Amino acid sequence: MSILDTAAGVKTLSDREIAMGLLEDAKVCATMLCAATMEAYTPAVRSLFENQLAKQLQEHKVVFDYMHKHGWYEPKKSPMDMAMEDLRLAKKVCD
After folding, report:
1. CA angle 25-31-33, nearest 5°?
2. How far apart are CA 54 and CA 51, in angstroms?
3. Mean pLDDT to the nearest integer, 79-87
4. Is the entire prediction scored with pTM above 0.70?
5. By CB neighbour count within 10 A (0-12 exposed, 13-18 middle, 19+ buried), where does 85 fall?
6. Which of 12, 25, 22 lies closest to 66 in space, CA to CA?
7. For residues 49 and 40, is the Cβ–Cβ distance under 8 A?
8. 72: enclosing H helix or E strand
9. What tens digit of pLDDT does each residue of 3-20 get?
10. Domain boundaries in the chain?
11. End-to-end Cα separation, the chain, in angstroms
C-alpha cells in the first residue's frame, strides 16, 4: 500500500476477501440463472440459460475449491451431522 493509499484511507483486500466476494457473486448469479431458466418461455431461451447456468456452476466450483484448499471456507454440515454434533455436546454436558 502506498503512502497516498494510506492517506486516502484505501483498504487493500486480502486474497481471502476477494475470493469470498467472487464466491458470493457466483451464488447470486447461479440463483438468478436458475430462476430465469425455470421461467423461460421458449426452448431456445431456456437452453441459453441452462448453458449459462452450467458455466456459472463450474466457475463457482473453481472458486469454492480454491477457498476450501486454503481453509477459508467450509461447507455447511448436513442436518444429520448437525444433529449428531448437538447430541454429542448434550451427552458431554450430562456426563
Report:
1. 100
2. 5
3. 82
4. no
5. exposed
6. 22
7. yes
8. none
9. 555 666 777 889 999 999
10. 3-94
11. 53
